[in-house]
Amino acid sequence: MKLFVAGVVLILIVETNAQWYKFPIEAAQGAHDMWQAYSDMREANWKNSDKYFHARGNYDAAQRGAGGRWAAEVISNTREWVQEKMGHGAEGSEADQRANHWGREGNDPNHFRPAGLPEKY
């Protein structure tokens, strides 16, 4: 009986600290944040705004927690890998990845905001 109680207590301690059950929810929310930033970028159609939307999508996703940060990293890396394979310039990909990383680290995405971009975004 003592072993059973000790096991239950250990499970409760680990569960509350790890909060592993939140990861998939955060990942889904982070993926949605990435999609929202992409949709806003397409809607805005604003010159030199792509780095801002990269940073914003990663920032918003990372704010969700570990799952959101993971989703942002996977989506960003996959997108850049596909872009490189399709023959888009490596220098553009590097700049996008810098903006992605900037946002995922919790830095202000407005650092990349172009002048005149409507406040809606």
UniProtKB/TrEMBL annotation:
Protein's GO biological process: acute-phase response
Signal peptide (UniProt feature, chain positions): 1-18
Alphabetical list of PROSITE patterns matching this protein: SAA (PS00992)
A Gene Ontology cellular-component term: high-density lipoprotein particle
Keyword tags: Acute phase, HDL, Signal
Location of the region described as Disordered in the Swiss-Prot/TrEMBL record: 85-121
Keyword ATP-binding belongs to the record: no
Compositional bias (Basic and acidic residues): 95-111
InterPro entries: Serum_amyloid_A, Synovial_Prolif_Regulator
Superkingdom assignment: Eukaryota
Tagged with keyword Signal: yes
Function per UniProt: Major acute phase reactant. Apolipoprotein of the HDL complex.
Matches recorded under PANTHER family: SERUM AMYLOID A, SERUM AMYLOID A PROTEIN
Homology family: Belongs to the SAA family.
Protein name: Serum amyloid A protein
